[in-house]
Amino acid sequence: MMQWQIGDVRISKVLEQQVALPAEGLIANVDAERMRQHASWLKPHFMTDDGEIELSIHALVVESAGKTIVVDTCMGNDRKLPMDLGPLDTAFLSELEKVVAREDVDFVMCTHLHFDHVGWNTMLVDGKWVPTFPNARYLFAREEYEHWTGEVKDDNIDLSIAVTPIVEAGLHDLVESNHSITKEVTLEPSPGHTPGHVSVRIQSGGEDAVITGDLVHHPVQLAEPTWGSHPDAQPERAVQTRRDFVSRYGDRSTLVIGTHFAGPTAGHIRIEGNSCRLVVPE
User: Fold this and answer.
1) DSSP H stretches of helix in the chain
2) How many Cα atoms sit within 13 Å of 103 on the Cβ side?
3) SS3 label, residue 159
4) How confident is the model at residue 1 (pLDDT cuts 50, 70, 90)?
């Protein structure tokens, strides 16, 4: 179980699965030569010896001010998924309950509503999709929720299984993109991947960290912010968000925790000329 301590806040990673895939399978407009130049710092954690990128799908449990927050809930079991990724049958819930019982979760925070961030919002019980965390308030950024409940369609969005049952149960709250969940945990707007996408900032005891969400899927996109992700709904806006993120957190003590970063999952952005790298703490 991978954990980080940020002041009084504890953050735990709960893995659903980790996969390796060709970079072009996820990242748009990859330059193969530039990718090879980054291999020296991407290996061994974020790139395989064969040059494929490592991608992790995990949730992050944030314990702050007496509250337990689950940030993003992966893909979930027993459901049809895009790109023939499912149905899955993972031990995610068993791993999660090593950190916290489902009934003891206070908040579920979805950085956005793509299928791989809302999956375990619900679970299949006797043929019905029911809230996995029955005592939690599920927080959705208002802009994100209102966008996807409009007329817009996207293959990565299916609210019927993982979001609508939460709304019907009366467990959801629509919050602003700078909402404070506790005095130590605050949302930070990071639009582009989706219109209402948010990241999660943790500040406690003079230390801070940020959970990226999908503003960046792989650390190489910090160094190459123009390399988008195929699911980016607003590609140009996403590029600017990545540039702003590196400018804001580069060469600072802020721990960057990647929602899809494999291996050690977290590191610090170090600026190098016109680019940067993610340096993993030893």
Assistant:
1) 32-42, 92-96, 115-118, 142-148, 159-162, 164-168, 220-223, 235-249
2) 0
3) helix
4) confident
Q: pLDDT tens across 125-144, in order? A: 999 999 999 999 999 999 99
Q: Are residues 64 and 204 in contact, defined by beta-carbon separation less than 8 angstroms?
A: yes
pLDDT of 41: 97
Contacts of 76-82 with CB under 8 Å at 24 or more apart are 76/118, 76/119, 76/120, 76/121, 76/122, 76/123, 76/162, 77/123, 77/124, 78/123, 78/124, 79/119, 79/124, 79/161, 79/162, 81/115, 82/115, 82/155, 82/156
Is residue 238 within 8 Å of 244, Cβ to Cβ? no
Q: How crowded is the C-beta side of 3, counted as CA atoms within 13 Å?
A: 13
Q: Which helix (H) or strand (E) holds 199?
A: strand 198-204
**CA nearest 226: which of 29, 24, 47, 25?**
29
List Cα–Cα distances, 248 to 34, 88, 138, 142, 171, in angstroms. Answer: 24, 37, 28, 24, 34
User: Cβ atoms within 10 A of the Cβ of 167, count?
Assistant: 15
CA–CA separation, 276 vs 42, rounded Å? 12
Q: How would residue 83 be classed by pLDDT, with cut points 50, 70 and 90?
A: confident
| Collapsed DSSP state (helix, strand, coil) of residue 154 | coil
- The structure tokens listed for 180 are 């404070």
What is the spatial distance between Cα 43 and Cα 39, in angstroms, rounded to a whole number? 6
Q: Give the H/E segment covering residue 207.
A: strand 207-211
pLDDT at 85 over 90: no
Domains with residue ranges and CATH for the chain: 3-279 (3.60.15.10)
Question: How do residues 15-69 score in pLDDT, each as one tens digit?
Answer: 999 999 999 999 999 999 999 999 999 999 999 999 999 999 999 999 999 999 9
